[in-house]
Amino acid sequence: MTSSQQTEIEKHDDTDVVLSVQHVGKFFKLPTEQATGLKQAFINWTKGIKGYKKQQVLNDISFEVHRGDFFGIVGRNGSGKSTLLKIISGIYMPDGGTVDVKGKLVPFIELGVGFNPELTGRENVFLNGALLGFTHNEIEDMYDDIVDFAELGEFMDQKLKNYSSGMQVRLAFSVAIKAQGDILVLDEVLAVGDEAFQQKCDDYFTQVKKDPTKTVILVTHSMDSVKKYCNKAILIKDGDIVVNGNKEEAANQYTLENIQSEKKDAERKKGEYPDGLNEHCPLLQVKPISNQICKSSDTFHFEVEYDYSEQNEFYLALALHDLRRGGIAYDTGSKALKFTQTGHHSVEFEMPLTVFNNGDFRLVASLRTPSKTDPKKSDMVAFTNDANSCAFAIRDSKNRDYALLSDRALTIKCVETH
């Protein structure tokens, strides 16, 4: 963490705390055996059968949000972040712990909730505002700002059912962000509307970030949004906070969680051998040695472990797949890496990353033997499936996100104009 990041995190004192979550826990009762009548219910009771099992969603959650924070909450699906958001918003009650809110909290958990298609746009603004806890006069004061931001002035007296989906999204989002609350709670709603409206939202949040009186709590899967807008963030995993405060650490750890989870999801067996392997080569996998969250200045170290007992020469071919943009970013060629050591071995490799921009990548290996019909080619014996390949990510503030190659690798210069 840089000194400026540390200063930004620590700039508030305790009197600025607008949301305090202390030791919050939450569980749900999931039905397992339902009684069809009083008799069965009585039998279940005598046998000690509860008819439900307890699912603990949040364990012991504690954090504070200060006035002026743009606070991120991230975590994979099922981590408990949406449940936490509903507890903060007063939709759920915690089973343990306390939630203390200072000021008016405006929750916006789902776009369009509370909108009635049979009412006009104007009527829906007042209806939605009332559901958020504002009086008629308060909504009247906000109305022009809401309509101006949504750019729907000429449509506000039409019924909502005649709006396009894009118009409905713009109106719903405008009600949320223009409602004059002290704390705005947003759940996955930054990427709404068309490109022009998204740019407008981006400009708005850039301004909000600079306003010391505005407090925003953002739940998102977009780590770009976390790094761009948030000054603090927490990462939740299996109902626990595993990163508290540092937005860079939370975003990078989330990316790593995704990489590891995708690997586990891919670990499925088909028959005796995993996909890509067989009796000739029962083991072939690419494993990381370096940290899987890298900078472009790093050299990524990895190893290929194989078990191949046929007594002939063979090749290890490596390919780098670009998971974000698609396609193969690099390939060694099918006959580039020749080996003669058969049996069970591990081979260590290194790969400089300086030419790449930010992205998500996967290293895939295949074991090949010389072709019996064409000396210039090779035949594949085995390959690594997703579970046996190695994924990693590049996250570097010096890079861009769009193109694969960095400006260090390739720059197009104007030579002459005619």
Automatic annotation (TrEMBL):
Source species, domain of life: Bacteria
Domain ABC transporter: 38-263
Keyword set includes S-adenosyl-L-methionine: no
Keyword tags: ATP-binding, Hydrolase, Nucleotide-binding, Transport
Protein name, UniProt field: ATP-driven polysaccharide export protein
One GO CC annotation: membrane
SMART domains reported for this sequence: AAA
GO MF term (any one): ABC-type transporter activity
Transport in keyword set: yes
Family: Belongs to the ABC transporter superfamily.
Xref: InterPro entries: AAA+_ATPase (IPR003593), ABC_transporter-like_ATP-bd (IPR003439), ABC_transporter-like_CS (IPR017871), ABC_transpr_TagH-like (IPR015860), Bact_Polysacc_Export_ATP-bd (IPR050683), P-loop_NTPase (IPR027417)
A Pfam family reported for this protein in Swiss-Prot or TrEMBL: ABC_tran
Family matches, as PANTHER family: TEICHOIC ACIDS EXPORT ATP-BINDING PROTEIN TAGH (PTHR46743)
EC number: 3.6.3.40
